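Reopening this ticket.

The earlier resolution said the output was attached, but the attachment link was broken on my side. Pasting everything inline this time so it's all in one place.
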Amino acid sequence: MLNGFKNFVMRGNVVDLAVGVVIGAAFTTLVNQFTASFLQPLIKMIGAGGDVSGLKFELPGVNNAIDLGAFINAVITFVLTAAVLYFLVVLPMNKLAERRDQGKEPEPKPITEDIRLLTEIRDALVAGRVPTQAARTEAEQSADR
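Inline output:
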């Protein structure tokens, strides 16, 4: 039982996924701080000095409000995270994969039964029409006589 667990944990995919989650968490912290340090002041400046994080709509009840500012911050953080991951990770990896595959020939498609039968028919027709080398030699010799 422990050996199976060890094999599961040591598989490359699990380790890669764990590293990705840790890096993603650290990157999310970085993007959150970028949003708080740079984007919120810009939004405040554009919004005539209003505080985006305090943009709330009070609802009836005690401490009941819709926090639109927090939602806007989360959307900006998500868009920035997705954009940075795409341009700094996904796009370069796709370019690298294209370069690796440039020199390789594409894998042949599996031959279906229809294609195999059509190929046999074509070969049989060609074999019936085109004389073999021995038949050509005999035909040339009989023409010379």
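Reporter confirms the inline version is readable. The longest strand covers residues 56-58. The mean pLDDT is 75.
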